[in-house]
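$ run holo --ligand "adenosine-5'-diphosphate" --emit tokens
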Amino acid sequence: YECVKNIKADTKEIYELAISIEELARQLSEQEQLRKRLSNDISHELRSPLAVLRSQIEALIDGVLEPTEERLARLNDEIVRMTKLINDLNELVTIESEHLQLKIMKINLAEELSTSIDGFIPLMESKGIQLIHESESEIYINGDKDRLKQIFVNLLTNAYKYTNEGGIIKVILTKNEDEAIIRFIDTGIGIKKGDLSYVFQRFYRGDESRSRKTGGAGIGLSIVKELVKAHDGIITVDSEIGKGSIFTIKFKLSQ
Ligand code: ADP
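-- output --
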């Protein structure tokens, strides 16, 4: 198509066609790079837990380790964790490769937030965390109910995981002239300033969270970011270590 581009033909269409082919080639190469990076990441993430499992099982077979109930339960936990990881990765691939079909409808945000938040009440109570919800009513956006719920649940799960006992989690919904603004505020462990720009990258986990027994793999926020983007929205984070974090989402209001 390089040569096609050079022809000063009277056929404007051929020139335009060449441009679109060029654009298509660029997109394909971008997708190819994304796919390669993702498969590298996936094998990296799965290789080490698999190696651990394998060596433990070999030791059990060889009789070097006793198959105690506790040991078997730990192996099982690891398999459950890897299964979750595979499911999350599957989800991320679907979303990133734009196979995601949103079922758009007019959404009452206060209502949707309530539904998601209500599901967290027992969990928060069990950890002595105060969960506060303040929503202005009559705020509508065009969105996919299930996907929005997925966004809210992921952010609430993180707020829960990274907030210590007796903390406070607030969800506040407001609006300005043309946007709905949702803030998830917690009094948790916070995120280092230098880490803030990485938290939405897949597999990124803060040092603190890596040492916590929360079982995540650093995929939740990348799914959230893609879902917010699919809704034409934006998500930002602000945080102070030891004080807490604020995740802010902005969506265009439905007309
Ligand atoms: P995961 O929680 O599985 O590690 P996420 O993609 O959901 O993965 O989050 C990425 C990282 O961002 C976490 O490991 C943690 O370091 C940081 N993080 C996310 N939410 C919070 C929060 N509310 N408070 C403190 N740190 C957070």
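-- notes --
The radius of gyration is 23 Å.
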